[in-house]
What does this fold into?
Amino acid sequence: MKKKIKDILFQELLKQAGRRIRTYLKVNKKTTPAKSLSISDSEFENGDAFVAQLKKDLALESIRITSDNIGGFLLNLITQMERVQQFCAVQQLKRNRINAQCKTCIKRIDAAKEIVLLYLNQTFDERRENFEQLFSLADKALLHTNSEKLILILEKIKQLADSSPFKDLQSVLNTQQALKDKDHEWDF
It folds into this structure.
């Protein structure tokens, strides 16, 4: 009689476990809403530690399998499957956050690139115009054989050639960083 009750209970546990497994397998992966998951859940933070603990838990369970506790084993296996599903959802949430941060950083870099390129285009246009004006003045000085004026103009051309728009860009970037720094002291 006792054996028959155990068998009936065992069969009932198997049916319940089977229903839970079928339900689990039918469930869409999106049933665990990412918004409800806590990313700070320490069990799911470290992937390697989670996998190691899961292997340990499953190994301990597999050692304890007997005909008397197969239903409990199946229920525990379902619980472990739910933990894995939750772990996957947390990891997906982390990946989504990383991707969002990546996209934000890329947008910032692109915006800074556009500013730098615009600055350089304007700076080089201005430098080209300055060189054209100085060479035009040098040509006029040569036509009028004004050597003093020619020397001054050539000195200005040399100074302009020695200066770099990249030095100016560095000072612009330094100023921009100083503007962001609340503790920066300005000397006037």
